[in-house]
């Protein structure tokens, strides 16, 4: 069977776009794993399946490389919005898109759609909304053990779950070391995305990321939102920050209701 896919990346975070309106194959865990495999398949950080055309909005399914489905991806949404523009599905400057992690609002900032603003929804630090085990509480600066080491962890949902650990120095080997344990730790019934964060100043932070179902990634949209939210919640930065990642920079803004863009 012949299939057609498009490859895009957002700050080095690369996805394959699979348009069900142009293909007949039904994606499942096995063929997603095969396609995302960088040795045996095409290789990618995931697959964006869509658009599925609804009465009010188009929707998107986001596959991780391990064949699991992610609720939301900031870079994935940015990439998919660019594809929708390139493929002629949208002509409007502003519209909404449905993900498993909620509705997102997309605004194109230039003609070709390569610069965008995404309203990602409301940040939540509540344990039952992330989720994190235990009594209902905001999970802020809690001690958690990953691989026999104790870390001060703040958890947040951006429509998908994140744990953020502030540190003086960050690196790829360190986040991979922690992420191997934190992703499947007993605290997190749905697994977790992990960011280690260094605060540069009131307007800049840097992060390294280990994604649930994907492993180390060069950039993350939801992770950037999560880390910026945590930095602001802990009083380490203002509500507008530049998030520096190995793949590049994203600007994140948080309003008084914790809505994040």
Question: In one word, what is the shape?
Answer: globular
* Beta-strand proportion: 35-45%
Radius of gyration: 18 Å
**Care to count the β-strands?**
18
Topology:
Blueprint: E1 5-10, E2 13-18, H1 29-36, E3 47-53, E4 58-63, E5 69-70, H2 74-86, E6 94-99, E7 102-108, E8 116-119, E9 121-122, E10 142-146, E11 149-157, E12 161-166, H3 172-182, E13 193-201, E14 204-211, E15 215-217, H4 221-233, E16 240-245, E17 248-253, E18 259-260
Parallel strand pairs: 2-3, 4-6, 12-13, 14-16
Antiparallel strand pairs: 1-2, 3-4, 4-5, 6-7, 7-8, 9-18, 10-11, 11-12, 13-14, 14-15, 16-17
Q: Can you describe this structure?
A:
This protein is globular. It has four helices and 18 strands. The longest helix has 13 residues, at 74-86. With 261 residues, it is α+β, with helices and mostly antiparallel strands. The protein starts with a strand and ends with a strand. Helices cover 17% and strands 38% of the residues.
């Amino acid at each position: 069977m012949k299939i057609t896919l498009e490859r895009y990346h957002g700050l080095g975070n690369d996805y394959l776009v699979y348009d069900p309106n142009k293909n007949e194959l039904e994606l499942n865990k096995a063929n997603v794993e095969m396609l995302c495999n960088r040795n045996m398949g095409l290789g990618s950080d995931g697959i964006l399946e869509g658009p599925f055309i609804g009465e009010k909005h188009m929707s998107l399914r986001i596959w991780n490389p391990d064949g699991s489905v992610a609720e939301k991806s900031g870079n994935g949404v940015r990439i998919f919005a660019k594809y929708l523009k390139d493929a002629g599905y949208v002509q409007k400057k502003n519209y909404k898109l449905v993900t498993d992690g909620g509705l997102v609002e997309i605004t194109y900032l230039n003609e070709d759609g390569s610069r965008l603003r995404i309203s990602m929804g409301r940040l939540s630090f509540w344990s039952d909304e992330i989720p994190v085990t235990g009594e209902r509480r905001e999970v802020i600066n809690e001690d958690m053990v990953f691989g026999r080491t104790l870390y001060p962890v703040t958890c947040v949902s951006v429509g998908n779950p994140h744990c953020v650990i502030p540190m003086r120095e960050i690196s790829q080997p360190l986040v991979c070391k922690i992420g191997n344990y934190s992703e499947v730790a007993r605290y997190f019934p749905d697994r977790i995305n992990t960011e280690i964060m260094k605060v540069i100043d009131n307007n800049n932070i840097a992060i390294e990321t280990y994604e649930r179902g994907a492993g180390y990634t060069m950039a993350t949209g939801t992770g950037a939102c999560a880390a910026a939210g945590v930095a602001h919640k802990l009083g380490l930065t203002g509500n507008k920050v530049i998030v520096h990642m190995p793949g590049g920079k994203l600007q994140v803004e948080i309003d008084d209701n914790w809505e994040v863009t």
